[in-house]
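Reviewer 2 asked us to include a model.

Predict the structure of this chain.
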Amino acid sequence: MPLHRFETSPKSGQIGVVHLGLGAFHRAHQAVYLERYRQRSGDATWGVCSANLRSSVGLVDGLRAAGHRYHVAEYTDTETLTLREVGVIEETLFSGQDSAGRWGRDREALLARMASADTRIVTLTVTEKGYFLNPASGELRVDDPMIIGDIASPQQPRTAPGLLVEALARRREAGITPFTVLSCDNMPDNGKRTRQAVVQLAEQRDVALAKWIADEVAFPCSMVDRIVPAMTDADFERLAALGIKDSNAVVCEAFTQWVVEDNFPSGRPNWEAEGVEMVADVAPFETMKLRMLNGSHSLLAYLGALAGIETVFDGVNHAKLQALLRRYMLEEAAPTLEMPEGIDLNAYADSLLARFANDSLRHRLQQIAMDGSQKLPQRWLSGARQRSAAGQSSPCVALGMAAWIRYTAGEDLQGHHYPVDDPLAKRFAELHQAHGNDPSDLVEAYLAMDDVVPNELATDQEFAQAVVTAYQTLTQEGLNEALAALERN
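Predicted model (structure tokens):
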């Protein structure tokens, strides 16, 4: 196996970026760009403080014990590997809930770091649900218990929007220029949505503070792309065979992309030198990626998981599923996109199928299937709504919706059970209990969820009937017949 190794440069102790959401994607994407920039430029002022806002403290303490160094294994395929040591993270903090139910072990240290004049950028990868926005309307969920808690105790925030509001309030009071807020999550207009969450939460506290944030804080949009599966025992064994025993390591594909709106009033690294595309408008790239890459992933996730298929690699090597993905991308997703001149969507679709077929990655479909209620509005439904308004059908999305509805029952087509990991899982269980014996009623109840499904699409009778028909075929005759029926459509 051709192997390329890169070691990290010495620690600087200087921090210019705070990151909320210390997960695998951050460590394999933004941190790698900053690591490469620091090594090539010698500019050590952009070290990172990364904070975990969730329940697991193990990664935070594991990185501390390792001197804030870890490895990223970048696979082109099973025969080519780049092994990179990353040390740009200078500090890790925990602001979540520990196993004893206590909140915010390092919260004050995190807020102090965010309020420091040295911090010029705060980046986020907290997933769609971490912004506490209604997926359909984009409004802050002020009735969510976590947001209610942040409104009641703003100086002890538990959410990402709450941390941003409190840190910005401290900077305003101290007369310190605000940091730039850069969302790196898979949401359309992610900067605008982050701004919406922060400003609306600030309005619950102080109208003047909210206006200052709206007027003075930059929230650039971005598009991020790199496939980073959850680590498995086999991944750790592969690294151990190369002499790397690192419990904090991550495995990913070699491909990486970052498109960022260039709006950083307090400065930024020279990311262009590392291949970051700094542009005036991210929206076309973000929508392209959400609908074509992430939308295809979701199709594979729900249809494949129901059929007992475990990974993206296995799914894309199912001939009829691969044909579905190509049809969806080129016939339903691509026609809804308005791209800058020179972007070849046919070539992009080909490149995505090639990336999905990377046999060195074991990207589990169950991982992709998480939080569908938060993901599907931007991956499938916004495009399907456009097509509906133009009098066009979306049979691939209809089949995907049928699969998602069936998936949320928590049982595949072979009768094997699995947990449904979604903020609306309790509601799904209630809907299946009430309507599970009547596909038409069940589909109607799902399409009536106005916090997930746009009203214009929910009231499209042709689309609703297509979902019902696909659901019946899928549940009664199985995946292959459902795909064959789509081919005949």
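The longest strand covers residues 70-77. The radius of gyration is 22 Å. We have added this to the supplementary material.
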